[in-house]
Design a protein that fits this description.
With about 625 residues, the chain is α/β, with parallel strands linked by helices. It contains 21 helices and 23 strands. The longest helix has 26 residues.
């Protein structure tokens, strides 16, 4: 048997799928809020200092800069680091990376909460392992190790040269006469860059729940992206939160962050409240230490092979005879399907038959996960509240071996706020949920980031103007308009690293690396040909967008049926200029034919060598 089905997987006959669909609908509907993303507030005003300040690296005073430079990369997380690597490989050296943080690392710089780990296979997620010779110590490796590895890559590729940290960009304006971007920062810098690459990531701006009274609470309050070890005790490498032994603590949110964090707060706090609107699905983690003997067996190209295997398992389907190299919650549905097809000698199936089998397996896997809750949580009422009733991947799948056990502790209480659609309000001394007031000393917000909110909230630039003062926020309002997912007409010499109208690989860093490779090629060719600016023609952009939409897989029905989350803009659709309902799905119009086809499309375009669809000006 190449693949084995998950243990305890119920059969199709053992579950009532029509009844579950109705249950899913009911659970979704009672969590919908008319405000959509507006239920969250930006960390400004009274909270701005807490989120703009850097608790980890002292700010070094410096004079404001006024300079001309070839390229500015905005962002020092993985997308910015991999962009810098690709620029170096392309022989481009006159660039500067700018970041709000005090060092490289992005989300791994800011996030240092107890229990932080990579929540999918680190051998796939961490880039350039063969090039650097680095090997993570665990399958789900620790956050501090990821941060240190990111910074080691920055050193190896000399990205610290010209890096500008503790710097917040306030405005981007295209100067048509100078053929440059004018970049203003809150530190008073005026930088004139020939090219700008937005590599500011998906998880760069924390968001707070807009709970009434949030400004009145007089206890301690912080977001998980700015963990306060001075208050809790311990540190990231040794998270013994001993200062909480006399504290009453509450956490708002039960997503991927909270799943890793809750066991630590439950262990150390005197009293701990978990405020949950929608439960996550939580499988066993079975984290394992990297085996040196296994490492010695790896042959050149092993990481690309593993990443391709993971992508097929998580996003597409395993091939006949292919072994699942990952074997975790991300690949479970397709692993089970492959095992069943193997038992049947791989019958030929139509797309409709494949979809039906996938849907059936989706319901079976989610039922297995709900039964896992019952097998661990002793209090039946609590267990019922922790069960996820939605389709697989409506919320980010998670794994943890201590999360459910935490609710067996006498000092831990789960407070479900789905009926009231959130916490009622904060008071000076605590919070009110379901009409009951609870006194607490500390409120922790595990409320995530600006992922699918409006672009001005996601990117944080006060002004972002292309040619003739066109606002980027207006240009992309309601729908993306790109060429190859990285450029947009009316914004010369601007490149965006992200998930916008392109291929999607299950390892996020693969997306960043390949986009950066494509961007570096375009910039290098522009420089070689003596171009002062480059942008897509309107016709080429229109044709690309049309191709993206004509070949797209329509996931609207699936997305609409999902419980509200950042995956589907909190369940609130956008409406395009024609009145068509469109969800601002955080993946940004994924290329329907798949990752490999998209990569080949870009490779074929580069191989032609004529930069078809782009307009160069001298």
């Amino acid at each position: 048997m190449i693949n084995e089905k998950s243990k305890d997987l119920p059969s199709s006959d053992a579950i009532d799928i029509p009844a579950l669909k109705e249950k899913y609908r009911q659970e979704r509907d009672r969590r919908l809020r008319k405000e959509g993303q507006q239920q969250y507030v930006q960390p400004r005003a009274e909270f701005s200092n807490a989120y703009e300040a850097d608790p980890y690296t002292p700010v070094t005073p410096r004079d404001a800069l006024s300079e001309d430079i070839d390229i500015v990369v905005l962002g020092g997380g993985w997308s910015g680091i991999l962009t810098g690597v690709q620029l170096r490989k392309a022989g481009i050296g006159n660039f500067r990376i700018i970041d709000h943080a005090g060092d490289f690392g992005g989300v791994w710089y800011w996030n240092r909460y107890p229990g932080l780990q990579c929540d999918n296979d680190a051998y796939c997620y961490l880039p350039l392992l063969e090039e650097t010779g680095f090997m993570p110590t665990k399958k789900f490796t620790d956050g501090w190790e990821i941060r240190e590895y990111a910074q080691s890559i920055a050193r190896q590729y000399r990205l610290y040269e010209n890096a500008l940290f503790h710097t917040l960009v306030s405005a981007l304006r295209w100067d048509e006469n100078a053929k440059r971007w004018r970049i203003s920062t809150r530190q008073g810098d005026e930088i004139r860059a020939r090219h700008v690459i937005l590599a500011n990531g998906l998880l760069n701006i924390p968001k707070l729940p807009g709970i009434p009274g949030i400004d009145k609470f007089k206890g301690h309050l912080f977001h998980t992206a700015r963990w306060d070890y001075d208050y809790t005790g311990g540190d990231q490498k040794k998270p013994a939160l001993d200062k909480l032994s006399s504290k009453r603590v509450a956490i708002v949110g039960t997503g991927a962050t909270s799943i890793q964090l809750v066991p630590y707060l439950g262990k150390y706090a005197k009293q701990f409240y978990v405020l949950q609107r929608t439960p996550s699905c939580v499988d066993t983690r079975r984290n394992s230490v990297t085996d040196p003997a296994w490492v010695k067996t790896l042959k050149p190209g092993w990481q690309a092979e593993r990443r391709a295997n993971f992508h097929r398992g998580a996003n597409e389907s395993f091939q006949k005879g292919e072994k699942d190299l990952i074997c975790d919650i991300w690949t479970e549905v397709n692993r089970n399907l492959a095992a069943e097809r193997e038992e049947q000698d791989w019958p030929e199936l139509t797309p409709e038959q494949l979809f039906a089998r996938y849907e059936d397996m989706d319901f079976r896997v989610m039922e297995r996960l709900r039964r896992r809750v019952d097998s661990i949580v002793r209090d039946k009422a609590t267990a019922e509240k922790l069960k996820p009733y939605y389709r697989y991947q409506c919320k980010r799948p998670t794994s943890n071996d201590e999360y459910y056990d935490t609710f067996n502790r006498p000092n831990v209480s789960l407070i479900d706020v789905s009926e009231s659609q959130g916490v009622d309000r904060l008071t000076e001394t605590g919070f009110v949920a379901n009409g009951v007031e609870y006194p607490v000393d500390c409120m922790v917000f595990a409320s995530g980031y600006e992922v699918t909110s409006d672009l001005d909230r996601r990117w944080g630039f006060d002004v972002f103007e292309g040619r003739n003062g066109l606002s980027m926020y207006q240009n992309w309002k309601g729908s993306y308009k790109t060429f190859h997912g990285v450029m947009t007409h009316g914004f010369p010499n601007l490149f965006v690293i992200g998930l916008n109208q392109g291929g999607l690989n299950s390892s996020l860093t693969v997306n960043f690396e390949e986009q950066a490779r494509h961007v570096a090629y375009i910039i290098k060719q522009t420089m070689t040909r003596g171009g002062a600016s480059v942008e897509p023609t309107q016709e080429a952009q229109n044709a690309y967008v049309q191709h993206i939409r004509e070949t797209a897989i329509d996931r609207t029905e699936w997305i609409r049926a999902c419980t509200p989350s950042y995956f589907n803009n909190e369940g609130k659709p956008d409406v395009d200029e024609n009145g068509n309902e469109k969800f601002r799905f955080y993946l940004g119009e994924v290329y329907g034919p798949g990752w490999d086809v998209f990569m080949q499309r870009l490779e074929d375009w580069r191989s032609q060598g004529d930069m078809q669809g782009l307009s160069l000006s001298q």
